[in-house]
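[recover] target loaded
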């Protein structure tokens, strides 16, 4: 595993290279990010961003979503995969937000995990992006890059979350995960990492063992 000074250097360099660690999902209301994250499971963010304007245009309020016909929601989100379970989760979660959380996205992990279709990845996204709390969003980019860099040595999301929480400054953890997404798309891709153009190569295990491809 990396030393503390190496992790601090990686955090700093990614901050300089990606000064605006924005979420790739488009949203204007807190609950829209929650439902966009649900739609993004096994689906690209780009596809979700095509679907959500139609979904939230037809159902412009949380109340409208809670009262929506699940079959009609299915038709709108059909191209994002697993549309039946996602449609059911969105409608049921909207109703639960109204009934139990005063129409607000909750700000604790325990409450977020009670919502239909919400796992730790989505819950952490809400904590970090909506409530500005320390959070570690373990998505495919985070799994790939944290292993390549040498910050973790496991593919288990729960273990990765725990390890990164211990390694990262809490106030920077959420933005760090967004930066990993940006870096994973632009430089450290799944197919072939571009080590020659990587700002953190000097601290990366993959680069320092000779650039040999690790088992992704």
């Amino acid at each position: 595993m990396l030393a503390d000074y190496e992790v601090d250097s990686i955090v700093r360099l990614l901050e300089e290279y990606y000064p605006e660690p924005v979420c790739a999902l488009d949203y204007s209301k807190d609950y829209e990010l929650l439902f966009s994250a649900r739609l993004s499971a096994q689906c690209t963010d780009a596809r979700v961003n095509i679907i959500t304007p139609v979904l939230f245009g037809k159902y412009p309020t949380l109340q409208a979503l809670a009262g929506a016909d699940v079959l009609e929601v299915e038709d709108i989100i059909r191209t994002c995969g697993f549309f039946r379970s996602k449609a059911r989760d969105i409608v049921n979660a909207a109703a639960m937000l109204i009934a139990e959380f005063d129409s607000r996205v909750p700000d604790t992990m325990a409450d977020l995990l009670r919502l239909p279709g919400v796992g730790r990845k989505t819950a952490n996204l809400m904590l970090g992006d909506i409530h500005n709390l320390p959070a570690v969003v373990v998505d495919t980019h985070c799994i790939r890059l944290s292993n390549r860099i040498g910050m973790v040595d496991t593919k288990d999301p729960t273990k990765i979350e725990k390890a990164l929480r211990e390694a990262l400054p809490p106030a920077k953890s959420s933005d760090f995960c967004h930066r990993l997404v940006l870096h994973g798309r632009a430089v450290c891709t799944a197919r072939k990492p571009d080590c020659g153009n990587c700002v953190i190569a000097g601290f990366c295990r993959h680069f320092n063992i000779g650039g040999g491809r690790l088992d992704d």
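[recover] notes: The CA atoms of residues 55 and 76 lie 6 Å apart.
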